[in-house]
Write a structure and sequence with these properties.
- The structure is a single chain.
- It contains ten helices and ten strands.
- By secondary structure, it is an alpha/beta fold.
- Helix 4 crosses helix 5.
Length: about 270
């Protein structure tokens, strides 16, 4: 990792990725972005990981891209440099959006927003399935104030599905920074908790989101994100294939058996 600027931990099947550059409000360098990709890739290929929490160290979640070297840059060249740092890994095929790192994870993803989330940081929150906020959290699509468009594109594409089109456009046009209470009011975050309860709450929430069988949760996520763009007939075919695959799995048999035997299920992920 880039001097431990991206931390990675697994506890009880839940992976936590922590942006660890508090002295710079967790702003992200190219090296950190490559290391972040390595962590994301591990969460995809490691079947023991059932859910992913993304958070920040210190008083900020993530202040976005480190712009100390300027905003105008050769993005293709920067991408090539990052690619050299990313470890080779063969990711399984997936219908999930490859454009965004976090939506590509076929497991529940939770942004535990501990402080300011702006720029790329707030875009990362939109890429997660859920957002839980500390009372200290702040959210801002500040891109127009820097005369640029949202860098990952998650705001323009995903945010309208989260908070509705007019509110999403209001946030992206104005660059306003909203607090945790307002974020909860508009539906951007699921829950607001005191700062010292943020990670325990996120961990408990992750456990609840992984109570079901891994294949079934993966299928639900793939269908949900695919449904944002697929024609209805094509979505119907995908839905039927997912139902056939999951209903004939070992876990489906275990789901029925555990129900009849009145015991907790033991999922195998197959």
């Amino acid at each position: 990792m880039s001097d431990d600027k991206i931390l990675f931990d697994i506890n009880e099947g839940i992976a936590t990725i922590t942006i660890n550059r508090p002295e710079a409000m967790n702003s992200v360098t190219d090296e950190m972005l490559a290391d972040f990709q390595n962590c994301v890739n591990q969460t995809i290929v490691d079947d023991t990981i059932r859910a992913v929490i993304l958070t920040g160290m210190g008083r900020a979640f993530c202040a976005g891209t480190d712009v100390s070297s300027g905003i105008a840059r050769n993005h293709a060249e920067a991408q090539r440099e990052r690619a050299q740092r990313v470890k080779p890994v063969e990711l399984p095929p997936s219908p999930l959006p490859a454009m965004w790192q976090l939506t590509r994870i076929p497991k529940p993803t939770i942004a535990a927003v501990n402080g300011a989330a702006v720029g790329m940081g707030v875009e990362w929150t939109a890429q997660c399935d859920f957002r839980i906020a500390s009372t200290k959290a702040r959210f801002g699509w500040v891109f127009p104030l820097r005369a640029i468009s949202p860098d990952t594109g998650a705001g323009p594409y995903l945010l309208p599905h989260i908070v509705g089109l007019p509110k999403a456009l209001e946030l992206m046009y104005s660059g306003d920074i909203i607090d945790a209470a307002e974020a909860e009011r508009i539906g951007l975050v699921t829950q607001v908790v005191p700062d010292d309860q943020l990670l325990p709450t996120a961990h408990t929430f992750a456990q609840r989101m992984t109570a079901g069988a891994p294949m079934a949760i993966k299928a639900a996520k793939e269908l949900a994100y695919s449904g944002l763009e697929l024609p209805f007939d094509e979505f119907g075919r995908m839905k039927t294939e997912a139902l056939e695959t999951t209903s004939t799995s070992e876990d489906a048999k275990e789901g029925v058996a555990s129900f009849l035997e009145k015991r907790p299920p033991v999922w195998r992920g197959r």
